[in-house]
Amino acid sequence: MGDIEAPDSTRSRHAIFSLLPSKEFVTSRKGTLLIGEVILSFVDFICFVASTAAVFVTAPLIEFLAALFLLFAYSTKINERFKGFHWPLMDFLRCVSASIIFFIISIIAVSKYPDGASKAAGLFGFIATIFFALDFYLIFNDLANFLKAGGGGESTDDPPTPPDDSDSDSD
After folding, report:
1. Which position among 39, 52, 98, 156 has the lowest Cβ density within 10 Å, counted as fewest Cβ atoms?
2. Domain residue ranges in the chain
3. How many C-beta neighbours within 10 Å does residue 141 have?
């Protein structure tokens, strides 16, 4: 009976571990940034919940969930299965909007609300702004290099055609 239970427990253990990011992804630049964004968004959410600036609690929560979704999508390679989405562009827009939103609500939390939790939320929000801004800068560079390399849908396998230097008016 022990032989029957071992494969089931192994399968369930394998299913649980397949949901976790791989070591290669976690140590990559993108993995490190996404994990930092998830942690900072969550800490900022908790700080806003505990502060008098609780009106701003929705923005860190949404950014936390979006970063957590993309961490899961990139680490399990779901992004490679769904080709209908342009994942880098979606990630770029998420990072741009998050950095702007975190910067604005952090300024308001630090300047308008006097309690310590609001100040901490503002501080973590500024750090999250840096993480999201660094991420969108790196994504922008990757997208620009991709477009420079001719990745805009054109085939690069065809040899370039030589220019036609013949002039029909010459003799």
Report:
1. 156
2. 25-148
3. 10
